Amino acid sequence: MKTLSITLNGQKRLTNITSNETLLDVLRNQFQVKSVKAACWAGDCGICTVLLDDKPVKSCLVLAQEAMNCKIVTVEGISTKENANELQNAFIKHGAVQCGFCTGAFLIMGHYILTQQQRFTFSEIQEMINGIICRCTGYKQIIESIYDVNERQFS
To answer: DSSP string spanning 132-152?
Structure first.
């Protein structure tokens, strides 16, 4: 056993981990972060995407010990239950939420895109979210949501 120290959504957190535990396991099982979903366990679906030191990663592919002293951000870190952020409101407006299983990963990736302080085309956003799978909506509404907020950043 080893003690993992991370900053999770702005709060310093400590927990004991084994050498083979993934960041996904620790987030869901030890810190009860339910916005990070588990699906393929192979990095193929992207549903487990989080920000690790401000970069998107598939948490099922990251050993927890690799996140030592790192900053982790999940959906819980970009908004609250009582106060949806601008991107979440755009998802609602554009109908980008269906079953909700992939929503957390797309919101994290959208948040990452919006923090780049760069104007992106529809096609560029489409390419950037390419590693996350949605089986319900297709991707048009998701891309429109991110694109809409990105355009407003520059108008």
So the answer is: S--SSS-SHHHHHHHHHHHHH
CATH of segment(s) 2-75: 3.10.20.30
Reading phi first (left if > 0) and then psi (alpha if -120 to 50, else beta), residue 63 is in beta
Which residues make up the CATH 3.10.20.30 domain(s) of the chain? 2-75
Task: List, as own/partner pairs, every contact residues 137-145 make where C-beta atoms lie below 8 angstroms and the sequence separation is at least 24, other chains included.
Answer: 137/95, 137/96, 137/97, 137/98, 141/91, 141/94, 141/95, 141/96, 142/91, 142/94, 142/96, 142/106, 142/110, 144/94, 144/96, 145/87, 145/90, 145/91, 145/93, 145/94, 145/96, 145/110
- Per residue in 17-67, pLDDT (tens digit) is 999 999 999 999 999 999 999 999 999 999 999 999 999 999 999 999 999
- The reported pTM is 0.94
